[in-house]
Amino acid sequence: MQGQLRLPRLTGFVRKLIITLFAAYVIELILRLQGVDLAPWLALQPGGPGVWQVATYVIVQGHSPPLWFLFGLLILWWVVSPFEVGFGARRTAQLCGVCTLGAGAVAYLAGFVIQPLPAYAGSGSLWLGAIMATTYLRRDQELSLFGAFSLTGRQLMFGLIALVVLNFLFDRNLTHFLADAGAMAAGVGFIRWLRRPRSPARTPKRPRSKDRGLRVIKGGMSEDDEPPTWLN
User: What are phi and psi of 114, to 5 degrees?
Assistant: First the structure.
């Protein structure tokens, strides 16, 4: 029987995310035809004055070929939708936000130490951080990769790290490498925060009654009663 490679169900948040990224891509291409380039304003310039670029770089992809851009959206669908099925839209939005800021912050702060660093843009930090988060979540489970072979989540994590290192050895783009490392670290950190042990709920303390404390017993000790003795 011939196997089929199927994409997961397109969930609500991922659908909105893909539509937003696609619309931003088309708008950026149209503006470039008019001679307006958004990259200097929205792409991440490490160590630059635009702190907002730590979050806006993900929507700047006008310099990517359409085929590569669509392939990135396909990976985003394939990786993030299963996470939303398991954890819901709110946690998925938090994961995407953490991976975006984690990748952007690492690359941006590196610009104050290493100069010059090339600019960084694109939504690769979203799906890269989501893959790392998913594999870390299932690090001790056996996973099937496209039905071709099986490996554990931990092995897939090391394979992903090795792929990022090989990509750096190929293009020597330190900004890209630092952003990828920040996205992966943010994905793992988010799962650790999500799976942190919860402290048990505290039981409310009962209010003290006014008559609580020593009580006076009527009557006294008769002559036949012996005084209490204490064992020291």
Answer: -115, 125
Rounded CA separation 55/119 (Å): 14
pTM over 0.70: yes
Helix axes 174-194, 153-171, angle to 10 degrees: 160
Q: Report residue 58 as tokens.
A: 């993900």
Q: Give tens-digit pLDDT for 171-210.
A: 999 999 999 999 999 999 999 999 888 766 565 566 555 5
What is residue 104's three-state secondary structure? Answer: helix
Alpha carbon distance 10, 82 (integer Å):
9
CB 63 within 8 A of CB 39: yes
Cα separation, 104 vs 98, whole angstroms: 10
DSSP helix/strand/coil, 95: helix
Per-residue model confidence (pLDDT) at position 140: 85
